[in-house]
Amino acid sequence: MSELPPCPKCQSAYTYEDGELLICPECAHEWSESGDAASENVIRDSNGTPLADGDTVSVIKDLKVKGSSSVVKVGTKVKNIRLVGGDHDIDCKIPGIGQMGLKSEFVKKVAE
């Protein structure tokens, strides 16, 4: 039986294979066996579609704007996004609200 590598996130030795992915049962981190560093840094939308700078996305859930009584409604289209690292994956300008940071888990990519 082949030796599986430890989890790159928490260093747990209890990793297991699930198809092409390796999974850590302790921290739920998933990664590919090829170990591509670039594949781990890909930002994906709520459906798992990779996002890129300049894409158009649609909001999938009503989002309250911090420090304001405004709400970003479901279905709001956001054009020309910019991907960034950190807590919020996406920097964008939302019509009627202005500059904002969004998490990629609350958007889906729109076919252009």
TrEMBL record:
The species this protein was found in: Thalassospira lohafexi
SUPFAM superfamilies linked: Prokaryotic SH3-related domain, Zinc beta-ribbon
Family label: Belongs to the YjdM family.
Name the UniProt record assigns to this protein: Alkylphosphonate utilization protein
Coiled coil: none
InterPro entries (alphabetical): YjdM, YjdM_C, YjdM_N
Pfam families: YjdM, Zn_Ribbon_YjdM
Protein YjdM N-terminal domain sequence ranges: 3-32
Ranges where the Protein YjdM C-terminal domain occurs: 43-110
Family annotation (NCBIfam families): phnA
UniProt superkingdom: Bacteria
Top-level taxonomy: Bacteria, Pseudomonadati, Pseudomonadota, Alphaproteobacteria, Rhodospirillales
